[in-house]
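Hi V.,

Quick status before I head out on leave. The structure for the redesign project is tokenized and pasted below; the design run finished overnight.
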């Protein structure tokens, strides 16, 4: 029997993405450059999300849920400026934003996304 779960960019500890029954699950996406401000880090993270969703043949208009982790809630407004420009009008997904201590102290943001495949 074949495994119906497709995993992408599989490492020893985690996969960057899994697809199962029409749903795409992304691992937490983090910035590459910890020296950027919240706007720059948010742009990098959303670019990672875009790249992975495109690889699964879907996009940000098909996001079912987003979880955003901020190291400092003072970054909320700056993150939202970038997010609001990125989300397609009329397709803003359900979302939660919380403050959390992230694994790397240089990271200001981490985003977890669940999306539907395009039909």
């Amino acid at each position: 029997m074949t495994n119906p779960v497709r995993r992408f960019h599989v490492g020893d500890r985690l996969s960057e993405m899994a697809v199962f029954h029409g749903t795409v699950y992304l691992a937490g996406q983090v910035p590459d450059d910890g020296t950027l401000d919240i706007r720059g880090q948010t742009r990098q993270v959303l670019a990672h999300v875009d790249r992975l969703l495109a690889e699964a043949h879907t996009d940000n208009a098909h996001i079912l849920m987003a979880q955003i982790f901020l190291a400092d809630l003072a970054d909320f407004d700056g993150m939202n400026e970038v997010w609001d420009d990125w989300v397609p009008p009329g397709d803003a997904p359900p979302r939660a934003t919380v403050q959390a201590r992230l694994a790397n102290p240089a990271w200001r943001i981490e985003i977890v996304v669940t999306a539907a495949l395009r039909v």
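Above is the designed sequence. The chain has a mean pLDDT of 96.

G. will cover questions while I'm gone.

Best,
W.
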